[in-house]
């Protein structure tokens, strides 16, 4: 499950302070904020800029550079599908088509019920067991469309019952 | 008298977990409890025979016996068959180390991976761990650097720069602070060796980095691990904590005057941060854009100080070099490619995994003798060697020995040792398009040939695939590749043309389809 805490300036300040001692602290701070709130809230930018004596533009530049940092909250579950060559050779494209149809969502989108976000990744390091998918923090290998349905069955059922 | 305690090994490597290793371990635990059998389950790393994962091993007087792939539902049947005593079963493979795939390897760097409990300092020491560091502690910095230089070790990240020369530059640099940075941003498709050794033998990396620190007089180090590897991050962090507890890291390393502090930093999904200067920018908390060289990171690296930047496999090769001596390592290999490389068989391959072998092994041996051909059973049509910026090679080049210079001679690269296999259903024009698309998505944006050239490359490839003015567009594609090769600031833009050009050179028939043929598809 993805972090769902609502934005709190007080909590964000504490998260930032906990990483103050690190050199080159901006990335660790951003990771910690995203872990807490599920994304980098716009309101975090001035807090980080003040803490690190940077301009807001500097912080924005870093947040927007990295694929991992989100500007909006993801769905309750994030599904990352590998699009790199090893997975392509094992028909990742077919799997991606299946997932799109099954969940009715495209890359970089979240389903209407806020249950799933779908993200492309280039390589999950499971290239000998391609194609690979990561659901939340759990890696899956040799994912056929049928195996994808089995992996997500219980989550889909729970989400449907909400 | 109670029964002897059985020991069972179930890997905790991410690849094993991805096919159900945790469920298998839980099923073994539950079944043993149900039958009242006392059992010790060790969560080891992976042996690298990934098609056999979950590879369960049981300790017997003759050695460890392998069963795989073991799913949770296979467990009761294994108990019934008496697998705890190494009995025969449909999933049995005999002694693990006699399995030909494993037996034919030459394991130096991965010698302990899959054998030990990765988070047991005791296990690490029992299997030769810290012997290289202990020897280094008794040597002068210059002697350590000489040993590494004489081993012939070249950077295992792909560029193949001699490690000893890099270390010597940092050793001779005058500074109040020096750093060791491990580049664990393994973003190339088809590579997973860094991940495997960090999860299967993390103390080996800590030992290698500590030796590097003593060799050049560095007191701080960072391991930059990509965010896609949460298991590796967790394992390295825990191993570092244990190493501090046991005084293998800290202010007084085992009572000597040496000080070395080590920390893990996590990337954030940017392929370019595998490029050393981008990684340094990222470690400093900035956008991961490349720096122009010179100055070399060896002289002005992290926070402007002399820095060793080495890949995981370069650093994990160092402990055995120091332990067994430069000659022992150098005696493996061919030409100027010395020692071993962890080849990674990936993609459409029957027996995918890690094959650590001396340089000089051929692609053909790796693909067929180890890999067993494709998993789909169709003929191999192409392999991409050395990551997404590596060349696509046809079967006519499979007899080529794995050797940096031999590969360079055919405009290919050994790179990180990753090999991605494609069967005859692959469309090489689409693979060439993907190389450009990947570069467009992952370019740091600093230089124009890479940032814009890649976007233009996708457009040109789209036109070629659509069968529009094919010859004129191929001419344009070649021009574009030349500009990117000659004009890019780093390897991202500079090498993206390699997969594109190799696809065009070796598989021209995929580029020259008529509009009628395209319409018929």
Automatic annotation (TrEMBL), chain A:
CDD domains, sorted: TRX_Fd_NuoE_FDH_gamma
Co-factor binding details: Binds 1 [2Fe-2S] cluster.
Cofactor(s) in the UniProt record: [2Fe-2S] cluster
Residues at which [2Fe-2S] cluster binds: 82, 87, 123, 127
Pfam families (alphabetical): 2Fe-2S_thioredx (PF01257)
Signal peptide segment: none
Keyword Glycoprotein: no
Family per record: Belongs to the complex I 24 kDa subunit family.
Protein name: Formate dehydrogenase subunit gamma
Source organism: Azospirillum brasilense
From TrEMBL, chain B:
Organism of provenance: Azospirillum brasilense
GO molecular function terms noted in the UniProt entry: 4 iron, 4 sulfur cluster binding; FMN binding; metal ion binding; NADH dehydrogenase (ubiquinone) activity
UniProt cross-references to PANTHER family, sorted A to Z: NADH-QUINONE OXIDOREDUCTASE SUBUNIT F
Protein name per the record: Formate dehydrogenase beta subunit
Origin superkingdom: Bacteria
Span of domain NADH-ubiquinone oxidoreductase 51kDa subunit iron-sulphur binding: 429-474
InterPro entries per the UniProt record, alphabetical: NADH-UbQ_OxRdtase_51kDa_CS, Nuo51_FMN-bd, Nuo51_FMN-bd_sf, Nuop51_4Fe4S-bd, Nuop51_4Fe4S-bd_sf
PROSITE patterns, per the entry: COMPLEX1_51K_1, COMPLEX1_51K_2
Keyword 4Fe-4S: yes
Assigned keywords, A-Z: 4Fe-4S, Iron, Iron-sulfur, Metal-binding, Plasmid
Co-factor(s): [4Fe-4S] cluster; FMN
Stated family: Belongs to the complex I 51 kDa subunit family.
């Amino acid at each position: 499950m993805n972090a769902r805490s609502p934005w709190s300036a007080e909590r964000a300040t504490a998260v930032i302070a906990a990483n103050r001692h690190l050199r080159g602290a901006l990335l660790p701070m951003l990771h910690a904020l995203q872990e807490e709130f599920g994304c980098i809230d716009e309101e975090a930018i001035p807090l980080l800029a003040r803490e690190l004596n940077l301009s807001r533009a500097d912080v924005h530049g870093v947040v927007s550079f990295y694929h991992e940092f989100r500007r909006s909250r993801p769905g309750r579950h994030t599904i990352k599908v590998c699009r790199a060559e090893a997975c392509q050779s094992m028909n990742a494209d077919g799997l991606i088509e299946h997932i799109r149809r099954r969940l009715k969502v495209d890359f970089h989108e979240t389903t209407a019920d806020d249950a799933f976000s779908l993200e492309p990744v280039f390589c999950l390091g499971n290239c000998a067991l391609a194609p690979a998918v990561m659901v939340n923090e759990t890696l899956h290998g040799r994912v056929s469309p049928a195996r994808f349905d089995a992996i997500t069955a219980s989550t889909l059922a729970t989400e449907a019952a909400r | 008298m109670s029964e002897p305690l059985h020991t069972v090994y179930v890997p905790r490597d991410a690849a094993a977990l991805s096919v159900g290793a945790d469920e298998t371990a839980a099923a073994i635990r539950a079944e043993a409890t149900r039958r009242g059998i006392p059992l010790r389950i060790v969560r080891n790393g992976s042996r690298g025979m990934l098609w056999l994962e979950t590879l369960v091993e049981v300790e017997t007087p003759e050695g460890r016996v392998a069963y795989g792939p073991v799913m949770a539902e296979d467990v009761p049947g294994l108990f019934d068959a008496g697998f705890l005593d190494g009995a025969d079963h449909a999933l049995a493979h005999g002694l693990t180390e006699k399995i030909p795939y494993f037996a034919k390897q030459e394991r130096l760097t991965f010698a302990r991976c899959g054998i030990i409990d990765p988070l047991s300092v005791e296990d690490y020491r029992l299997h030769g761990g810290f012997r290289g560091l202990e020897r280094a502690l008794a040597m002068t910095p210059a002697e350590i650097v000489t040993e590494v230089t004489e081993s012939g070790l070249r950077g295992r990240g792909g560029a193949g720069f001699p490690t000893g020369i890099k270390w010597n530059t940092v050793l001779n640099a005058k500074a109040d602070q020096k750093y060791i940075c491990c580049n664990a941003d393994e973003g190339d498709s088809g590579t997973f060796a860094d991940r495997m050794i960090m999860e299967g033998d993390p103390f080996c990396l800590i030992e290698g980095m500590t030796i590097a620190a003593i060799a050049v007089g560095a007191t701080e180090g960072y391991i930059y691990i990509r965010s896609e590897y949460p298991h590796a991050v967790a394992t390295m962090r825990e191993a570092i904590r244990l190493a501090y507890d046991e005084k293998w890291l800290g202010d007084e390393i085992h009572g000597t005057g040496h000080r070395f502090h080590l920390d893990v930093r996590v990337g954030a999904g940017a392929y370019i941060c595998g490029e050393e200067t981008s990684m340094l920018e990222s470690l400093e908390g900035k956008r991961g854009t490349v720096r122009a060289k010179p100055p070399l990171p060896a002289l002005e690296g992290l926070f402007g100080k002399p820095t060793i930047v080495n890949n995981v496999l370069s650093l994990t090769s160092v402990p055995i070099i120091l332990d067994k001596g430069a000659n022992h390592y150098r005696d493996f290999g061919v030409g100027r490619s010395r020692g071993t490389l962890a080849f990674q068989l990936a993609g459409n391959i029957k027996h995918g995994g890690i094959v650590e072998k001396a340089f000089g092994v051929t692609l053909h041996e790796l693909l067929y003798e180890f890999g067993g051909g494709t998993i789909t059973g169709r003929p191999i049509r192409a392999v991409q060697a050395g990551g997404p910026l590596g060349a696509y090679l046809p079967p006519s080049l499979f007899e080529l020995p794995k050797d940096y210079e031999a590969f360079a001679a055919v405009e290919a690269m050994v790179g990180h040792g990753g090999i991605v296999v494609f069967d005859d259903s692959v469309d090489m024009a689409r693979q060439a398009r993907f190389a450009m698309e990947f570069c467009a998505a992952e370019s740091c944006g600093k230089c124009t040939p890479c940032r814009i050239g890649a976007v233009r490359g996708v457009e040109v490839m789209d036109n070629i695939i659509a069968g529009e003015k094919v010859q004129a567009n191929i001419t344009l594609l070649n021009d574009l590749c030349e500009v990117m090769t000659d004009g890019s600031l780093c390897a991202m833009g500079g090498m993206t043309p390699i997969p594109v050009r190799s696809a065009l050179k070796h598989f021209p028939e995929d580029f020259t389809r008529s509009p009628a043929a395209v319409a018929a598809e």
